[in-house]
Amino acid sequence: MNIALATDHAGYEQLKSLQAWLESLGHTCHNFGPASLQPDDDYTDFVKAVAKAVASGEYQRGIIMGGSGQGEAMAANRLRGIRCAVFYGTAVARKVVDASGRVSHDPYEIIKLSRLHNDSNVLSLAARFLNMEDMKDATKLWLETPFSNEARHSRRNSKLDEA
Fold first, then answer.
1. Alpha-carbon span 3 to 31, nearest angstrom
2. 103-104 and 96-97: which strand pairing?
3. Residue 58 region by backbone torsions, left for phi larger than 0, else alpha for psi between -120 and 50, else beta
4. Among 3.40.1400.10, 2.40.30.60, 3.40.50.150, 3.30.300.330, what is the CATH number of 2-159?
5. Which residue ranges make up each domain of the chain?
6. Which stretch of DSSP H or E encloses residue 76?
7. Entry pTM
8. How would you class 2 by CB atoms within 10 Å of its CB: exposed for 0-12, middle for 13-18, buried for 19 or more?
9. pLDDT tens profile 81-107
């Protein structure tokens, strides 16, 4: 799979490790930046490049990082055709319901749902909240989980780009 990557200073080191791991699994990755650690950089500069690359179809998926992952996801989701999900930890809500309606204790259920229901094409990881193992587990699951193609989910997803 062709994967576009970017971060800001908060995830600079983690993204290099994640890229090496993804490439060891056979994925082709392009790092849209930054090229060097710049503590005062702006995530928007790098995230927009990933979002444009994924929205254009040049890359099948994108993975972005920042301190919380929230601002990065907001920046990516401004582009038509992008459905960016945020993952910032393995905490489980009191009652997590999985895609089939059963109570789940899986800390990665939100990752599965972002693909099954929302067909997310960009994943935003919270560099200050996740260790590398959690990043790898979440990323692997996200890349391997297909979109359900259920009509109701396709309909809802298409409405995101109507505005």
1. 9
2. antiparallel
3. alpha
4. 3.40.1400.10
5. 2-159
6. helix 70-76
7. 0.91
8. middle
9. 999 999 988 765 666 666 677 777 778
